Amino acid sequence: MQTTLSLTAERISKIWRQICWIIVAGSIAGNILIHFRTKNYIGTNHTFLLTITFLTFSTVLLGYVCWSYFTMCQSNFKLLELNQNGAGIWITQYQIRKKQLYIPFEWLTIDQSNSGINLSWTHAIIFNRKKRPRLQARDTLFIRKGWVTANSAANFFNTVTYFQNGATGPVPVMKPVKSAKRPKARRKTNQQFLLILATALICNAGISLIATKQSPLIVSGNDFHKKANFKQGLVVKSRDIQFKINKAYAATSSNGHPLLILNMNAKPLKDSASLDASNFTLYKHWTAVEENNQANYSDAEHHIGESIQINGKVKPVVNVLGNDGWGSGSNEVPTNSFNVILKRPNQAKFDLVYEGFYYQFNKPDKYEDTSIVLHVKTKSLEVLK
Amino acid sequence: MKIKWFLLFTCMSAFLLTSVQAQAKTYRYQQHPITLKESGQHITIRSYQILDHPEPSYSYDDTNEVAAYLLVHMTASLNSRYDDNLTLYSSDFELLSGPNATDVLSKDDKISRLLSVYPKIMTREHDGFKVKNGHSRNFDVAFQVYPNNRQTLIVSMGLLNDNQRIILHDVKTTNGVTAD
């Protein structure tokens, strides 16, 4: 007589491992995807939040899968069990908590097919946390032959049928079943597997941190320089201000040197936000060291009154952003669109920098703004007509 | 039900707030005097001029020396049953020169040459400029501006301190960079 039916340990742990790998691979792939999708969009903490949410979700999923696997391990993968009187069967369900269903033979139909055994019941009794019985509606369970040890499904089926018919007649013959003893080596492979899994998760966290570029652990100051590739109509946020670059133009000054003219709008994200021409600088190639040395190529505060050549005529640029303390005014963030003029080098690409704080390899304090570095390609600029 | 009332309240308050904000008016100066009236206080913008001479003294704020003085000639009067005096402060006037908010000039800005030509300028030191009820007084307000920008004067007046905007000089531009 075979009164219990257990899942094969090897088979289940193999499936478990496969699920774990899928989750880990999905998590890594998702992070890479987030990194590439949000590379050109610079929003405050946007990437960071997305990554953290995704990572948390996949970790919870992984934890859930692992937890149910270990509850299964603890009860030796037992799935079905005949009760002591031979009047019904117990089904064990493995979720976060182990659940047990009792089904008397009157409610149970059991069929055997080539691929496995199929259980279906009209009602079932489930015991809740306070050990009180509750009735559950109809359901089915299909046990594949592959999930259990060879012959054990057939043996169990024969036993149940024998008891269902009132335990009369000849006792069914049990076919030989391989012992489901745990091989010692498998425990070791499980440990190895967990080690690999942990490494994968750590790598994953690393990838997401690299992807977000907002690692709070490194205090080099560079974390407060957001980098983006310039395109027409770009929306970029610093901590205090949201910029919308309506148009960036390539122009020539009345003296004949090339200029960059930015037509943009700014929206303060904080009441304390302030903006003036001295915030905008241009570097041939921006690096932290260059900004620390203030080795910029040009700055907006020295090109405020600039005039440009259009079709041979010289015209002054209107509505140019002024300086702090200009006419003893306040340097609030402008509500209308404004222009910023910078001298640009004769090269294929350069860096436009919004300097939200005075950078000396430090990080901005709470009341200062963060900086933005825009990589600009000269061919992406429009020419004024 | 509570949520319904809350939403209704929010909508109503939003509506009230916007209706209060909508009271601020915008005028356009077209070579004719504009009179702003608020609780018996009348301020007339007679004219404005951007001066070629004298020029502002050199400062690091304006290294290219393109700035100029903008002068607004105004008349203030009071005609009220309740008040004896109208007191004007230099902080009641602000100018938007393009994107740049600018305050009334101060004596610290080295404007003695300007003051010698236009002595009626109300500086920041000249606070508490009084007009008796039934009388009117002429005065000027001066700002340092970029002459090519759109110039908008903001006057805060009346009991509610409403911001009245007067577009003195508008710039028509299609590309946003140069005037048409």
Short overview:
The complex is a heterodimer of chains A (385) and B (180). Chain A is α+β, with helices and mostly antiparallel strands.
Keywords:
heterodimer; A: 385 residues; alpha+beta; five-stranded mixed sheet; 21 strands; 29% strand; B: five-stranded mixed sheet; four-stranded antiparallel sheet; 11 strands; 14% helix; 40% strand
List the helices and strands and how they pair.
The complex is a heterodimer of chains A (385) and B (180).
Chain A: E1 4-6, H1 9-37, H2 46-74, E2 78-82, E3 88-94, E4 98-104, E5 108-112, E6 116-121, E7 124-127, E8 133-136, E9 139-144, H3 152-164, H4 184-212, E10 225-229, E11 235-237, E12 241-252, E13 258-268, E14 280-283, H5 288-292, E15 298-299, E16 307-310, E17 313-316, E18 338-343, E19 349-354, E20 371-377, E21 382-383
Parallel strand pairs in A: 10-20, 12-21
Antiparallel strand pairs in A: 1-2, 2-3, 3-4, 4-7, 5-6, 6-9, 7-8, 11-12, 12-13, 13-18, 14-15, 14-19, 16-17, 19-20
Helix pairs in contact in A: 1-2, 1-4, 2-4
Chain B: H1 2-21, E1 26-28, E2 34-38, E3 41-51, E4 68-78, E5 85-88, E6 93-97, E7 100-103, H2 112-117, E8 129-132, E9 136-145, E10 151-157, E11 162-169
Parallel strand pairs in B: 1-11
Antiparallel strand pairs in B: 2-3, 3-4, 4-9, 5-8, 6-7, 6-10, 10-11
Any overview of this molecule?
- Chain A has helices spanning 9-37, 46-74, 152-164, 184-212, 288-292; strands at residues 4-6, 78-82, 88-94, 98-104, 108-112, 116-121, 124-127, 133-136, 139-144, 225-229, 235-237, 241-252, 258-268, 280-283, 298-299, 307-310, 313-316, 338-343, 349-354, 371-377, 382-383.
- With 385 residues, chain A is an alpha+beta fold.
- In chain A, helix 1 (9-37) packs antiparallel against helix 2 (46-74), helix 1 packs parallel to helix 4 (184-212) and helix 2 packs antiparallel against helix 4 (184-212).
- Chain A is rod-shaped and about 110 Å long.
- Chain A starts with a strand and ends with a strand.
- Chain B is mainly β and 180 residues long.
- Chain B is built from two helices and eleven strands; from the N terminus they run H-E-E-E-E-E-E-E-H-E-E-E-E.
- Chain B has helices at 2-21, 112-117; strands spanning 26-28, 34-38, 41-51, 68-78, 85-88, 93-97, 100-103, 129-132, 136-145, 151-157, 162-169.
- The termini of chain B are far apart.
- At the A-B interface, strand 12 of A face strand 7 and strand 9 of B.
